[in-house]
## 1
Amino acid sequence: MIGQAIGGGRQRTYTLFESGLCVRRAKTFNYQFVPRTQLQSVDLTDGRLEIRRGLPWPLPIRCATKPMTQPRRVADAIERVLESE
């Protein structure tokens, strides 16, 4: 968690797979893979996309929707993966 706080201001790239979500920080070799079994739900608001996850890291994954061209489409793709199990 401390490592995530240090790199908190860096841009992240999210790659969605059927098996989970890969989060990669810009300008680092650091990445985090969150298995599909930990992803629970997705919430889209005007300025934020939030992916809730379960234990052992119950903190949600959040990102701004401003740089996204089609945030609704992204949220729908995540929901389809969550429903596929």
Note: The two ends are 28 Å apart (CA to CA).
## 2
Amino acid sequence: MQTIDAQIQNALHQASPEAAMRDVKHVVARELQALDPKTEIKTTDYFNHTFIPDFVLTWGSGGQRPTRDIYLRFSVDAPLIQRDLKSLHEESPAFIAISGGERHSDGNPDSAFSEYDDCLLSSTEALESISKEDSRTPVTQMLKASLLQGGKGYLLGDSAAQVQRAVSRADTALSRLDGPEVAASVMAMNDYLSPAFSSRIERVMQVMWVSQGGDAGRFPGSHEIVAALSSGELTQILPFLLSLEDVTNNDFWRNLGENLAIDHLQELKHWRRSTNLNLLVNANLDRISARGAAVDQIQPDLFDDLNRPPYWEVNESHLHLRCGEVDFKFVDDRRKISHRTEMGIAPRWYEIERRLDRYGIEGLEFTSPGSKTRIRSSTREGLPESLDMQALSEALGEMARVMAAELRWPRSRHNIEVDFDGSTVESVGAALHPHILAYVGLDLLSQASPGNLINFQQFVADGERFPWWNESGGSPSSALEQF
């Protein structure tokens, strides 16, 4: 395949100026997309214009999306480019040279542009050499993607080679705990990325370093070592990491999420299912807590695969778990699901009795055509030990239905309220881990089969890789004692 410079030269030597402009911009846009596939690239109707950019790049979602103007130039060497820097530097744009065989300024080029160090000066040739490097870890992916949004300085010649080396060797250096090579990557980031981006990547490098067994105190970085990412860092970094190619290093997600809470996931606003999101949540389920979950039966559409494995997603600032036709919406405040318009189906006692026996029954609410009864246990042993449940069921009659049940999670002090009529599962007292609430919802509200319950447990434990069913390892099913 031709180099990008050869493609540009072929495009420029067309008889039609309009075709030349169109094809040059197409080639460059493809190269920009290769550096950061998540970039939204908008081209203008101008080419090599004095003060109108050739491209406007946009990232993220929502109303406050960051942007950056890209100006194509035949050369970014002094003195011609200094005029552009002086008049256009306020928005920190990027100037990219498209002519082959880029000349470099005599002496130290950085000194000529030091007054405009928030701007990026590079070339298609330099960016191509960096984009071709494989992205095998979050660090190398972040380095490449950050160049467009946060790149700065004179990224040509030796400086471009320095960044290319960081992209190509950072992952290997981290896996081998190669201090000098990691230090060289950190230096390249600090020199050619804005502080917001370089510090973010360095924190992820610290996480990778520790994930490989390195001593946090010996990480060769430029910032103070902190054992875990702070809440603010998680909020900033998670969208970037989750948008990368699949990162299947489970230790990475575990170390990353030491301070992970449901709030950080809610901050994502909208995030569709992905391998990275599944790994992040499942690796840290013992750290995430929710007050309750609304449980809905989803009407599948024509293209909905009901045999698809469970997955996590964020929708309208709520963490969701989808298991076949069942959708769980987790909340950090029970009031958010206390006035649901959706109605569940209250089962008859005989339909749910055997499933309830897996738990400690603390209280029940029955309804029948002529009465409504709510009973609670007066002992620590629960209702089955203090009350003749069969006699109660017979007294209420065949038409009696269970409206709600308060249960004790096995071998724990946690109580769970199951509202069959409102189709919700809520913690009583302390918040609970989402997978515990989901298990109860699948078991009692959806009456899932044993096979589906086992599949769910294997999903949240990643095939027993994360054995955190609860603090004491308890499970409501004696047939599933691995949890």
Note: Residues 468-473, 478-483 have pLDDT under 50 and may be disordered.
## 3
Amino acid sequence: MIHEMQKALLLAENIKGFMGYVEKHKDSFMVESDKLYQVKLFINEYKFKIIADELQRINQFEWDGKYTYYLVDSFQKGLITIDEYVQHNYHDLFVLTARLYTLKNLSHSFQIH
């Protein structure tokens, strides 16, 4: 279970990193600000900050599989929406694709086999 806790903590850290990356690029010349703002709205709508904080809180000392899987599932719903939006607007949001790829792979590692 230590391995699962570490994966959950890594996912939480990368979610926070993604949110910071989006915030950092809000005034970048490489990204159209209106489309990046829409990504920020998706992040807020799907409550990524709350999910990341909760993943970090519940897995810091002990593994809580049921709640972790619930949070990851909620996160994946938002991630799918953001990924589709970025793919649809690839030329304007290409700088987000690497971070999204990492988040997708980390969250998919929690699929129940």
Note: The first helix runs from residue 2 to 24.
## 4
Amino acid sequence: MTTHIAPSDFLLPAGVHPRIGAFYALWRRKSQGDLPDVAQFDLAELSETYPLLARIGMDPAGKTLMWLDVAAAGHWPFKTPVKDRPLVQSVPLPSIKRVIGAFQETLASGIPDYYETTSWGNGGQTVSLARIAVPVKGELGPELIAYWEVLEAENFS
């Protein structure tokens, strides 16, 4: 897809969660006008500040989005991602097309992607969350670093 904006021109909406904003600022500092190398992002270290963090890329055949690395978070707001497994095994069924499409677009365009869910049911809770995916250069091609932030969680009956 042809795009008319540079990755550095991407702007987050006003009122974004502070950790999402800080993670995006970190990516911008590391990018210095070009996509940063994945080696600049130590998930183990970064997960102390950004617990719901994952590295995503394509399988060797270039057909399936895979979890390449996953932070050891205590509780994910969706099925826990597993390293070296397809994304579709963790993404809630109603969201698969949207999530896969957004990640593929980010890989192809090199432009970050930000998304907020309004809310959805998850094990007896209404959960609202935000996600940012930023492109990076991987050893075998483009990859993403994705970070999720829970904005709100309430019990319902």
Note: The longest helix spans residues 18-31.
